[in-house]
Amino acid sequence: MNIPEKEQPPLSKTRRKKQMEELQALGEELVTLSPERLKKIALAENLRDAISAAQRLTRPDEARRRQMQYIGKLMRTVDVEPLRAALALLRGESASETAMLHRLERWRTELLADEKVLHEIASRYPSVDLQYLRSLRRAALKENEQNKAPRSSRAIFQLLKGLENNGADPEDEPGDQDD
């Protein structure tokens, strides 16, 4: 039995307060986003301004609390489902970014264990400077033997990350091809 909208009882004060707190929590999540990620989300201009103002308030004081309440108030006039979907998508991007970092970590480990991985990296990334990568590998192995800080190992990781970010197929991994 569906009750028409006009006949539905009004929400209780507790339920209204809970909805407002949920909107404020959603606003808090938006405030924690980086400006680059925030640009990817379609927001009303006044909400975007309120969020950027809250991002400038770094101390957890009364001004920030009031600003967060104001964001929650503004969110009552906005359809929040697209915002929730956009935030879920952004969380998914961070999961894929984490997977990419794990993949690069695995490549670095394989490279340090076996020099043949150099040729696989060279075939995947023709622009790579093999001589530089080979010297980084030797230096990383030497640092590891001498229990020094892993500067070269970090440099290998940054080099692989740069290669990956400059247009590679994330499904392809060294060592996954059938030769």
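Next protein, fold it too.
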Amino acid sequence: MADPCAWTIPDPLCCDSWAATAPTIQAAAKDFAALTLWAATGRQFGLCQIAVRPCGMKRCQDGLGEFWGYDWSGGTWTPYIFNGMWFNCACPGICCCDPRCQVRLMGPVDSIVEVSIGGVIVPSSAYRVDDNHWLVRTDGDCWPICADLDSDDGPNVFVVTYNRGTPVPAGLLVAASTLACEWAKACTGGDCRLSSRVTSLARNGITIDMVDPSDMLEAGLTGLWDVDAIINALNPYRLKQRLRIYAPELNVPRTVTSP
């Protein structure tokens, strides 16, 4: 995901000046807070609705073509791991311990919005989602073996629309509202808790050393203890983005980005 999706930030609970803040500044403050905390927590929270054009898969026990692994890998052997050893799928057996008909979606899949084949909506009772990735056909039919990616209208045009991602935790949204409050105060010239670039302060014979704000930013923190507590709880290892596994034998569905 390129930006936070479905971050519905509530109005701050402990921000007396929020009600008097202009709506445009409130909106900008929430946008700032959402983007900042989305990145600070590893870009892993938020539900984005996307439409993809998958390529259908069938299992190897369904016929000669599948027997040799053609539908899995386009005419090559299909590797799998069993008991720590690599094998090639060339016959029915351990490599076929999966549903007969499934396609892989880029996960995590939160919910399916719509599945259509040739412009006809497939009822939700005809499929399920396994492991937040696999769209499994359960009504005895199968997904198109060779989906038509050259056209937007035809019997083999296969489109899956779904919500991808992980819902934003309620506590993270509260932290975002706190950060939005402090940003709005800074924007309007009020006193706020956001750190400036001052690293030490001497007054009345007392010197106070403060953490360099650049160090906090590099660590993915904001300087607000209540906000940073949520960041540390949800991203303790300072991940920059969600971990990924690339499997060359798996088809990656084409994402519809326009229109």
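About the second fold: The first helix runs from residue 23 to 40.
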